[in-house]
# Entry
Amino acid sequence: MFKKIIILTITSLFILSCGEPNNPEDYSGGYKVANKIATFGDANDVIVDGNYAYVAQGEVGLAIFDISNPKNPTLVTNQSVGLKGYSTKLLKKDNIIYLAAGGSGFNIVDITDLNNIQVNNQNINGKLVNVHLMGNYLVSSLSETGIQMVNIENPIFIDYRGKTQTNGFVRDVITSNDQSKMFAATGEMGLSLFDISIFDDGYGVYPLLSSVNLPGYAESVVLDETNQKAYVACGNAGLQVVDYSNPNSIKLIGSYDSAGYAKEIAYENGKIYLTASGMQVYDVTTPSNPKILGIIDTPHALGLTIDTNYIYVADKEEGLIVIPKK
# Structure
């Protein structure tokens, strides 16, 4: 009888400790990895357009994946020949990929014919750490040397226009949909808002409307223009929420001290997607009080993007990671 009691007790403990509803270590919130695909180099950033995912992979350049079946991506090509420096960020306009490669400037990749990819390089006066597309312009983050406007009407031989000086090291820039405002994540100096309504073909002098100091190190910024909120990935300080309803006096209204180092951020329909020693999802329907929805264990996650049904993560060690949305 005594042995039976012991066996029943042990069995009960096993069920309690291993049963899914009572597992205290499952923080995924129901988000699950569908697939991981290794890359040849360090996956730093990813963008998605149609049936293709494009990955900036450090000194190995550019990888292109077919994601017509997102749960089973296949490598189409890996382009390293002709590329300079260490590619960290990228964007696409038409059939041209622009890769930010630090002190080596831009790697410009024409993918019109995937069997005959053409590469061009253009130096820039500064360290190119990030790039944002605004119409026919690349709004380029140059760390300590400010923000450079670059005209790409000729997509291969780009035209450098004016430069805007900032406080702090510019890590990321985003512009409003009406192209009247420019937000800059400036490292230890927080977030700055500039008036670019008089654009003057990229040669304008863009006045600083206001700025706000933020804890941590502002790495990346995304906008919810409907509610006039900016969400900032702030390194060791996690997620920071800024109200810009009064552009002349932007202010911090909320935060969430996420685990890890907050690096890249995306927003959609009241949710924030954040890389911070993993891929994290937040409910920000109440912007002043973000709530964590789930954490996926991707400890070397750097870049991310989202489409209608999936989250794509660039992980430095594991490559391209695909996660279905909920």
